[in-house]
Design goal:
Elements (H helix, E strand, L loop, with lengths): L3 H7 L4 H21 L4 E8 L7 H17 L1 H6 L2 E6 L7 H13 L6 E9 L1 H14 L9 H5 L12 E4 L18 E4 L9 H12 L2 E2 L7 E2 L2
Parallel strand pairs: 1-3, 2-3, 4-5
Antiparallel strand pairs: 6-7
Length: 224
């Protein structure tokens, strides 16, 4: 969800205003995804590298996450959205950790759409942590395979994404779901995240539907 800061800068607004507008874009996008039949949606909210941003911006982000959990996500829960947070989480303020855990518990039975929010997440950190858990479990080297490693990821039941959408014209993975995105289709739009709306999501899904997914094979099959 890129472009919050640039969106605010172009309007002469504080960066925090861009992040708050980004939370509204998240709600719009989740509601549109429900209408369009999407069953699983993962969003990158805060990376392990984001802690290096200015302290006031990080503090504002923590406050905005708390506001989002209290104001935006409960309405989505009423629409059948199950929310889960993936990442290390332990560096977040205690009050925010409590809100995250409470929302996960409250929405555990929802099954209309799974919303995965990557918080204090880094793809490399996830793989390092998974490797450590494999070692701690005492697994033999000859028993280590893709399934064994997948079982040690932050969210083993997170489906491998079919489509990765990058807003604001960014052309990199930015350490997001490095293991899970191995064969995802990429879609890039110049639209800043706060301006992202249903037509943009529909355009991304239509682009995906026209592609042939080969998974390393010479043939191809049009994505359903």
């Amino acid at each position: 969800m890129d472009g919050n800061g640039r969106w605010a800068e172009r309007r002469g607004l504080p960066v925090a205003d861009g992040h708050r507008e980004g939370t509204r874009a998240l709600r719009r996008t989740v509601e549109a995804a429900i209408d369009l039949g999407v069953r699983s949606l993962a969003v990158y909210a805060f990376s392990t590298e984001n802690w290096t941003r200015p302290i006031d911006e990080v503090e504002s982000l923590m406050e905005i996450f708390g506001e989002t959990i209290e104001r935006e996500l409960p309405d989505l829960a009423k629409q059948g959205v199950r929310t889960r947070f993936i990442g290390r989480r332990d560096r977040a303020p205690d009050w925010l950790q409590e809100r995250m855990a409470a929302l996960e518990t409250e929405t555990a039975a929802n099954d209309r759409l799974s919303l995965w929010i990557a918080f204090d997440y880094g793809g490399r950190a996830e793989l390092v942590d998974a490797a450590r858990r494999l070692i701690d479990s005492g697994v033999r080297a000859e028993d280590v395979d893709e399934d064994a490693l997948t079982a040690q990821l932050y969210a083993p039941d997170l489906p491998d994404p079919d489509l990765l959408i990058r807003t604001s014209g960014e052309l990199r993975l930015s350490n997001f779901l490095l293991w899970q995105l191995a064969y995802a289709e990429l879609y890039v739009t110049d639209v800043y995240w706060p301006d992202f709306r249903r037509p943009h999501l529909e355009e991304a899904l239509a682009s995906y539907a026209r592609r042939q997914r080969r998974f390393g094979k010479t043939g191809g099959q049009v994505a359903p």
